[in-house]
């Protein structure tokens, strides 16, 4: 028989084991802690590990946003005006393009004095465009194709036909203070004049007399676009309800129209000081220092309120990114734009590629080429607040088309820039096929702005119907009276032709770029300008452990042969991933061929996106 163990011995043995195992636990724990302590900073410091994984990006950072001007995109009922069913019938275009988000300019009931930017009912669809069930169909079909839909939110002003304005004008409660009303100034001779010298963006006084109410009301744009009074909490709530109405239907985001103008100073009687800019016209706001009528700080709280509404729709438990997007429209410096990031906008529109290009032309008489474009881009990145995401735009319904501004030769090149920068690009409909502005005589001018200031101020030229094919009216409508003329070049500038041609076309280049954009280096990788001279614009996009890309474009007027010194790019060869159409069609470069980086010959307008071979190869 085995001797029985002394219970104390047993205890001792047990304790010892326990002790041993505790010690072991402690040791394991300490080991782990030390491991974590050592590895965390290592992970944080290891650039390659950090960059290997895609950062946590929202859907609106990964997509191209495509702006549809509903009047001009596709007509489905042959009345010469585009509509929602028309848009629904064309959604496959975006799958072809690899575009994942569309933004629709206004389709709400409107007397169309500013073509929909004068809303008479925020929660319905204008009969010209269809009805709410057409909208729901469009949204459902779009979502079924993995397309996000952003709508225009004309926040600052309604149409004077809006019932709110009618009721405000006749002082019906609770609408009396829905708009900005003021008595005006009584002169010694008893005539009543405007309260102050505030000017409308569309010209002349922004104060309009109402005979009915016997007061002036304020309008930042047309007199028929009275500005809402956001100092009235009921108005604030009404407009939040408008957002809720569309979010409840499943809309993915809003583009807020003309944000700087939604509020004005409380002191309606204070004149604005002159700013003495040489070119300013006294009937336009630029003649004055507009701090009383533009970007007043109180707008911050309003935007914050909208952010809260949008965030209340975000479902964070879900893997699918349900965040609702807000982009606000303003033409201003980075410093002013950045305030809107702070207020809660995901992005303030950055129009620097539009304005820098135009201003450069006005000052220098030639268009903004490589150095000027680089400076404009650097200015955006240099002023971007930490953690915020950039965006770029080339044109829209208020600005000339890229082809008309830069010249046909450079169309692919500017699309190449737009789609290879770090930041969300917005493409105006038709830019993917290189559409050009139409000519509209003064007689035929539709835009109120053009009617008032002459055809050169008109925005009709860039709003002409989308060119789908070479049928009558480019496949936009069967009516013989499209609301604006189709550009005569539609026989060869159209989607169908550009898709099916055996040639390389602007559309195919756009699509190649849109697909390549999903590469990590192009989506979130760093951007570094390499060689830039008066002709050549070039930059490197790189995310570690992923293929890097070099973009090279000749924005000059003469052919150039460029040598990339090894030190900058550090690779011998590049593989052509995208090539602009003329360079491809004239046989200068072929997709997937290899190009020695020491000898890149580019004609004006030629551009390449090159995938770089591994270092040393
Ligand atoms: C925005 C729109 C423009 C419109 C104006 C007034 O700037 O983009 O088209 O005329 O607001 O609503
Ligand atoms: Mg129609």
TrEMBL record:
Q: Which UniProt keywords apply?
A: Glycoprotein, Membrane, Transmembrane, Transmembrane helix
This chain belongs to the protein called Glycosyl hydrolase family 13 catalytic domain-containing protein
InterPro entries xref list: GH (IPR017853), GH13_cat_dom (IPR006047), Glyco_hydro_b (IPR013780), O16G_dom_2 (IPR045857)
Q: Where is the Glycosyl hydrolase family 13 catalytic domain?
A: 67-463
SMART domains in UniProt: Aamy
Basic and acidic residues: bias regions: 450-463
Membrane-spanning segments: 21-45
In terms of SUPFAM superfamilies, this protein maps to: (Trans)glycosidases
Region Disordered: list its residue ranges: 450-472
- Which organism does this sequence originate in? Littorina saxatilis
Q: Which one Pfam family would you cite for this protein?
A: Alpha-amylase
Q: Biological process GO annotation list?
A: carbohydrate metabolic process
